[in-house]
Design a protein that fits this description.
The complex is a heterodimer of chains A (116) and B (114). By secondary structure, chain A is mostly beta strands. Chain A is built from no helices and 14 strands. In chain A, the strands form 4 sheets. In chain A, strands 2, 5, 6, 10, 13 and 14 form a 6-stranded mixed β-sheet that branches. In chain A, strands 3-9-8-7 form a 4-stranded antiparallel β-sheet, with no helix packed on it. In chain A, strands 1-4 form a two-stranded antiparallel sheet. The relative contact order of chain A is 0.35. In chain B, 0% of the residues lie in helices and 50% in strands. In chain B, the strands form 2 sheets. In chain B, strands 2, 4, 5, 6, 9, 10 and 11 form a 7-stranded mixed β-sheet that branches. In chain B, strands 1-3-8-7 form a 4-stranded antiparallel β-sheet, with no helix packed on it. Chain B is globular, with a radius of gyration of 13 Å. The chains are: A mainly beta (116), B mainly beta (114).
């Protein structure tokens, strides 16, 4: 089955610093990668996604490019804010055995804390 | 337009008891998936329902069962609760159109088993 490996955290940055959270995966078939964010005490919110190789997803200043050759979907932001403090999850759906049901496989999450 | 809603928000049970969690999908969505998120971990897929049938299941025992109703809402039932079932249970809804379809999550039900 699919598996997702995320950069281990926690990550602590100062406001306006550059952020990278690495995500690599193993999958069969044709995976679609996602980044979800979880703010304290809340459920998961979609941050961005990609549907085919070399697609770049972007939202709220965050970006990630789907690289099939390196099986990666690293998350980046040029200038983080205190309000970006949250847990970030890389996730993957895909085709397994010719069947596509959209099951999401998640990484373990990366805690980001941004200080003023 | 209401998003995914779940009830109850919190629940406390004792070992051996049974619990039912409820989920209403986002308007227009026909597929509901359930996930278990233990503290400090990523969500783990339990199962997915479409057209009132379970069409994919993760590595969870038969104590975990579900149901989808004609209005697409869903229930998750857990029997013979164990301490290890304590977690945040997340429901997600989507359209059954393909692999890249986004799943929208509810706020979750936090279950504590004592």
């Amino acid at each position: 089955g699919n598996s997702v490996t995320q950069m281990e955290g926690p990550v602590t940055l100062s406001e306006e610093a550059f952020l990278t959270i690495n995500c690599t995966y193993t999958a069969t078939g044709y995976p679609s990668p996602f980044w979800y964010v979880q703010y304290p005490g809340e459920g998961l919110q979609l941050l961005l996604k990609a549907t085919k190789a070399d697609d770049k997803g972007s939202n709220k200043g965050f970006e990630a490019t789907y690289r099939k050759e390196t099986t990666s979907f690293h998350l980046e932001k040029g200038s983080v804010q205190v309000s970006d403090s949250a847990v970030y999850f890389c996730a993957l759906t895909g085709v397994i055995g010719g069947t596509s049901y959209g099951k999401l496989t998640f990484g373990q999450g990366t805690i980001l804390t941004v200080h003023p | 337009d209401a998003g995914v809603t779940q009830s109850p928000t919190h629940l406390i049970k004792t070992r051996g008891q049974q619990v039912t969690l409820r989920c209403s999908p986002k308007s227009g969505h026909d597929t509901v998936s359930w996930y278990q998120q233990a503290l400090g971990q990523g969500p783990q897929f339990i199962f997915q329902y479409y057209e009132e049938e379970e069409r994919q299941r993760g590595n969870f025992p038969d104590r975990f069962s579900g149901h989808q109703f004609p209005n697409y809402s869903s229930e998750l039932n857990v029997n013979a609760l164990l301490l290890g079932d304590s977690a945040l249970y997340l429901c997600a809804s989507s359209l059954a159109t393909g692999v890249g379809e986004t799943q929208y999550f509810g706020p979750g039900t936090r279950l504590l088993v004592l």
